[in-house]
């Protein structure tokens, strides 16, 4: 009996240990681990999309005539309006003092950054009616830019779209999945 | 434990880590990742050679240049590009660029002795030295060598040397040197001949490397495209060549002759044309002097070309003996050439870097004269002058005049034999005079963009001269063989970073002007060569500063363009479809630019200026007022000889040094379009395209005929030693059926002793084993062959 | 799909190289290197180890002096269009190289390539090269690297892509301009650079295109046509001895 008890209590203890380990590992695996995997980085300047509502999206994020896409505009674009400071914002002051006057590009962290071997063109996606928000975060109401999470192992952004997602959509939309469509 | 494992397995972490590890393994962080950005194109004119091609640089965000492409709107190359141009940015980003001014602090040539020096100090030091020389009354102790002969930089150097008071400015040798003098002899105008080759229906080429470049590779390739449109031969090309060169292989017919006998064949053809009356009799009678017998101003009678060429020396049988070409074949060629309307004879090396013997030039000109080609509307013309803004008149400063009164060193110092009657750009003669302790010492030598220590034929002449030269100042972008020997290095922009220009296209009969505009900002501490010369002039002050009054090189070029606009001549080719070869001589081209500023803006934007060819027989400045086949200029200059042939085109061949017994073979070097030559090192992109039967590891191959190889007991790939009276080099042997028996062929452009691991020590430098013969008429250093010996290593 | 395994379509990019116009100037090969970030090494004379997407061969008529003649033959990837597979795509164990059924391009993903080099063995044209070393550029020349093509890594195979990145750019423009995607035209770097315009590029299924007409020229031939790899690179030569060598076999 004693032995059974022992074994029963042992089972309980074992079960608890197992549960602790199991739950601990789950918590670590689901919650803590992934966070540890990424380093949190702040953008060099807090860019407020809300503050730029007097312009249209295309004023800054436009297609070039050759079919390529501007993406995040270069400092010359910022300079068109912010040659000298317009308001009281601290972030604008940084922009003017540190970048525009010193003729430096702002080292923006690109959330949807893809590695060198990926070719992505916005033109066909726009032509097929893919909304910006399906891949990028909605920014219209955004006052504060979110942190950029960089994978410590790969250096990728947390929001980097994976190949499987591209392939899935291409397959569904009867797009080509041949190498050169997405790789260069 | 098991729980942790189970939990971990049920969480996404391991899968995520595996995935990330896979991604990590695919991204090799040590591999460069090219920065992305907007891709733009900036048109300009290429200055890597003198060809004047329109190119455009592809830029990323206007900051990095990634590729040089042909400009489709440019009338010279019409969108195409050569290998050197396509690899051109490898010069801009070359690791062997010189990043800042350097001063040699140890022994000359010691690479560890170079110390960085500030620009103002470097320029100040040079100005001080030059000022001292002038104060001492020895401005003629300054000498210069430049590569750029058809540019405003050349004019600027001329101006500086004249204002300073030195007659000793030379250019790297070129075919244009002897062509110009041939122009002076026959027409009284010292301008090189050009050929309207694009529209020629029949081209008889005497060793001219047409598709290998021939002055302007871009132009010649575009012409070749016209000749071979749609699989048809719009132009029949007959190539006279000792080796199966690319032009010979691409030609409709290849006539194999021994090296150096091309002019003999030309005169053999002339013989038959005269005999069979296949020449333009009207033209010869009305416009040509010396075809018939002639009388000079002293009343002395001389034989004419008609008589000379019909002598026994030029019968098909005699020429056959010389050239090995069957007499029947010579007759056939003469008939073809004589009867084909618009047939033209051309000659000269691919990149035109070697002058020719005067009588060679005259022989080929004679053949064209017989065809009546040398007239308005004929295929052969004289390069027209480009009416650019003139440089300020020199005030005639006494110190400068004193220096200029001194004869140029090569003429002042007596050479072996009499001095040439019609001296040209005799760099070889000059270097020879320096090394033999000429009449006066050379204290400072400026070398601009040139690399004579490597690229001059018989380059040891430069090395020998250098030991007698006080200070060598290099204006170079690259640490080349010459810069390595310098005492002071003033690094200059490459053509992609600063303004430069190209005046005229070598070998073309029409007028041309193009501006090389910077495509991006300089990334090293370099300056434009013009700016350096100007700041030296400013420091010297007085009449020298006044002679170079511009604020900058760019300003100077602008002024030149303003002068061009003021002439109200010519037009800009700023869109596709301008066909320069369709321009008629003396045709009035309507200017399509508003004023000087407008012209400059468009020139700097990559468009080129052009104007019609000139009538080569208009306002002839010869004594007879005609095209002179009998050169009265040579008579006037005191040319003497046993008979009248010294005034006429004739075949003469100076035998190479050495004896047949010691050197049973002949060495001939050749140029390839895929090997940069002379003043530029082969960029790595081009080295990749070099065949493994030309270069294998560091071994360069010589081409010999299989029959010659078996006589020598050699097989493909054997190591050997090539010896000429100039020196010996280790080579390997490539059996090439396109090589003439008993002749050894060696490609030019390899064998550098400077630069980086991609260039250095690969192959042998052909310039070190070739032989230079000074032309008796002009003193120019000509090259045709050297006697050679090949033995097993 | 047709019974040959080809998808029906109007588009097949192909190239015609006129050997009578090729002067061996090497501009195509050099432009290709610059366009595609092809790495180079100090010694490039071992042609089995050297990476060259556009390789120029030197052919000759086998005769002696002075009847000797030679011709240059530039060789890009043939982008074989054989039913179902090209030789290289057929053997790739990891699907790193595939042929696009819609336009006929044979392309290759570098990160997926495991470097087994089966494709190199399979290719009868020697069009594929292997990265035996880490690609490394002299530091200043890294500025010349194009962002339009990714630099490769050691251990993968690479080859001519017909400048597919240029096609993708042209397609992007077509999308933007709402133009017909099947009518997209573009020019690879080699054809653009060629100073004699010996290289023509376009849709060989379009009989009215320049290439469509040229492939019907009596001078036209393909290399090793008897293997039925259906190369999409055609050559033109007026010399019979050149055309003959296209189907040469090693004499046993």
UniProtKB/TrEMBL annotation, chain A:
Domain Cytochrome c7-like: 119-184
UniProt keyword Kinase present: no
Keyword terms, alphabetized: Electron transport, Heme, Iron, Membrane, Metal-binding, Transmembrane, Transmembrane helix, Transport
Sequence ranges assigned to domain Class III cytochrome C in this UniProt record: 40-94
Entry-linked Gene3D superfamilies: Cytochrome C3
GO MF terms held by the record: electron transfer activity; heme binding; metal ion binding
Membrane-spanning ranges: 12-33
Protein's recorded name: Uncharacterized protein
From TrEMBL, chain C:
The 4Fe-4S ferredoxin-type domain, residue ranges: 13-43, 104-133
SUPFAM superfamilies in alphabetical order: 4Fe-4S ferredoxins (SSF54862)
GO molecular function: 4 iron, 4 sulfur cluster binding; metal ion binding
Key words, A-Z: 4Fe-4S, Iron, Iron-sulfur, Metal-binding
Matching Pfam families: Fer4_11, Fer4_2
Domain of life: Bacteria
Xref: Gene3D superfamilies: 3.30.70.20
Protein name: 4Fe-4S ferredoxin, iron-sulfur binding domain protein
Species this protein is from: Syntrophobacter fumaroxidans (strain DSM 10017 / MPOB)
